[in-house]
């Protein structure tokens, strides 16, 4: 596997969670109108709808801790990348685990999130 894929995935995850934890509205440029988010089983299509979900997901703030980032090329014909992230987050004093998958597609010299799936573990 290409070190470039791993580096891109790490840079993406660092940027994504840093932005999410400080100002989630700053995530909007990472999505397009064809982007899809499935958040704990609830789908949203397009950047406008996605941005209704993300900032509302953690009222009162959130802090993510990334435990692992796995990445693979997602296509033989394009520079698409599949990224899976596992970790935990703290919101309102409660810590929970999450798994998140992203399909990143090239957009000029950078990438955007075409598909995004997040699953949060049930609180124990």
From TrEMBL:
InterPro entries: NTF2 (IPR045875), NTF2-like_dom_sf (IPR032710), NTF2_dom (IPR002075), Nuclear_transport_factor_2_euk (IPR018222). PROSITE patterns: NTF2_DOMAIN. CDD domains: NTF2 (cd00780). Residues 8-120 form the NTF2 domain. Pfam families: NTF2 (PF02136). PANTHER family: NUCLEAR TRANSPORT FACTOR 2. This is NTF2 domain-containing protein. It comes from Streptomyces similanensis. The lineage of its organism: Bacteria, Bacillati, Actinomycetota, Actinomycetes, Kitasatosporales.
């Amino acid at each position: 596997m290409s070190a470039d894929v791993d580096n891109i995935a790490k840079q993406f995850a660092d940027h994504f969670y840093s932005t999410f934890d400080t100002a989630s509205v700053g995530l909007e440029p990472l999505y397009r109108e064809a982007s899809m988010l499935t958040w704990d089983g609830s789908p949203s299509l397009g950047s406008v709808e996605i941005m209704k979900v993300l900032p509302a997901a953690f009222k009162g703030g959130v802090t993510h801790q990334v435990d692992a980032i796995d990445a693979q090329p997602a296509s033989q014909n394009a520079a698409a990348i599949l990224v899976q992230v596992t970790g935990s987050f703290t919101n309102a004093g409660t810590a929970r685990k999450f798994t998140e998958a992203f399909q990143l597609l090239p957009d000029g010299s950078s990438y955007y999130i075409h598909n995004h799936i997040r699953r949060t573990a049930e609180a124990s």
